Amino acid sequence: MRIKAVIERTVKVDSNVRNARVDLSQMTVTVIAVITDQYVSGRPLAGFAFNSFGRYACGGPLRERFIPRLLAAEPKSLLDDSGDLDPPRILAALLAREKSGGHAERSMALGTLELALWDIVAKRAGRPLYELLAERDGVPLPGTGTIPTYAAGGFYGASDDVAPLQDEVARWRDAGFIDAKIKAGSADMTLDRRRIEAALRTLKSGARLAVDLSCAFDGVGAVRFAETFKPYGLWWLEEPCDPLDYEGFAMARAAGTPVAAGENLFAPREFDNFLRFARPGSDVVLQPDPPLAYGVSGLRDIVAIAGAHNLTPQSIFPHGGNMMSLHVAAGLGLAGVEAYPGQFGIFGGFSDEVEIGDGRASLPKAPGLGFEEQPALFRLFSELAVSG
Ligand code: MG
User: 92: CA distance to ligand 1 center in Å?
Assistant: First the structure.
């Protein structure tokens, strides 16, 4: 088995929203297709992935270093003993000429590529990726065939009117979500209070509401926010501070509401430092993003690091709201998966196979990551695959 070509392209994301700090209207994403010399059911065997949105496309390091390195490697050196592609081994090989640290510069390019390789491995086996991952790591799959999910979104709009937010939350509730997360952390606490109250009013009774503060505060501001909203019993405060502001996180946590972080950490060692120095407590929620943080291999290492800090995989809710996060969450036995209903154009959401009900997402049957069951996105991948 050989990799014949790797094709990447930068695509604009259809997203016109903003959080407390960043407007996402210029967002781009890298889509990638890895083409092999194999055929499955008469079709060329290819793997697909895209990088996490919220950060921009990562084509530079792919074009300049990692794709040439992959294609120059001795094909046999990329395979495991059974003749399948070996994504962890390939990742290690691609890191061979890389210095330590500085993960942000390459982790997303490598993580995206690594996930496309896993897509190939699982498609060749004719199985959904989560099944393969669970089997390899001895993770029991849920007997219900579903995993927990929550709806995320609730971005700021053009005005202070909370009616659009309330409509959005009502759509989540009616679509089968229970728990939810909305953006907060604007300069206007009165507006945030109205938004939080509107969301709580709209969700089912007993539902949990988290807020995503998008790194809006320093420690003092985070404490002020946490104390102001403590009576609402929020599920968690996500990124109250910059992810490297460990002291700020420690201050926020001390104010009494659980904290969450991880979508802006790039490598297992960064999670280790965060857990060591930010002292986020045993109820912390970790949110690594699979393509951002070195793919499945990175997520496996993050699970191990969490374990070394006495946290179980149930502390981890991967970021992303897409098929990659869903497979990794189920396959590694994580807490569940974030969902972004109706956001980010063709890159948001799960495949048509995935059904939402009672706050849970059904696990798909399609082989690999299953982008084939996400028609608009798969059209893009198909065009990409033939463009090489
Ligand atoms: Mg977030």
Answer: 29
